[in-house]
Amino acid sequence: MRCPSCASETFTYITRWIPAPERRQLPRPTTSKEAEVYRSLVAKDTPAPSTGRRVLKGGVVGLTALGLAGWLLRKKPDESGTQ
Hints:
mainly alpha
């Protein structure tokens, strides 16, 4: 960080060493309705997918990958018109 007035490299704001007193009349609430909704959305309480679903998903992904690889590696027809 550089000092805004002299551009010294050793500058830092004094608030890094001395904490500022609380300026609010009422302290910040510890929880809110929105925070609870967010916590419920990101909670790890959702059940893991079943084994059958995972196998089906893996099979679909595998078949898609093989299809794309075959499509990309197929031999292109001769452009001269002869076979």
